[in-house]
Amino acid sequence: MSTISGFVRDDATGEPISYANVFLAETSLGSATNVDGYFVITNVPFGSYQLLASMIGFKIHKQDVNIEDNVNIRINIRLTQAVLEGEEVTVTAERQKFEQSIESSQISLDLREINTVPGFIEADVFRALQMLPGVQSGNDFSSALYVRGSTPDQNLIMLDGITVYNPYHLGGIFSTFNTDAIKEADFHAG
């Protein structure tokens, strides 16, 4: 049994060609080049074969090889680039007449709704949000939001498109948002 090994390179640039197929015609023997363009075909019985090397974007290389028993053969292959021509493909589409909403549960609260929710000392946006379905409070003295079983640190709180990283004050009893400065609150439950 013999071994055929070598490199596959681009004929124009000399750069190695990765993942090219190198095989012996009409046999099940072959290999793919590695990232350096190197290939090895092992356990080749003696005889005459046609060695083929192919890669998309290159012409197929054909070479006759004669294998003698227990001989290692080194072959360097150079592939020439080839333009793959195909027929013109025209793609047309129509816009869907009805677009499906992919928004999960979204609720908007206006200032009137925020102010009508019973609060501790003053109206609080987070206390109003705790009254919504899917939202829980840890206790009566916390304005933290537990949305659908998550923890408060997993919530994204934004004010006019800017992330607010610590939305609580006084140990979490109140939110940092002044209800007089808020026109509406949008709540997305994920």
From TrEMBL:
Domain TonB-dependent receptor plug: 124-186
Signal peptide location: none
TM helices/strands, residue ranges: none
Pfam families on file: CarbopepD_reg_2, Plug
UniProt xrefs under PROSITE patterns: TONB_DEPENDENT_REC_3
Protein name: TonB-dependent receptor plug domain-containing protein
Organism of origin: marine metagenome
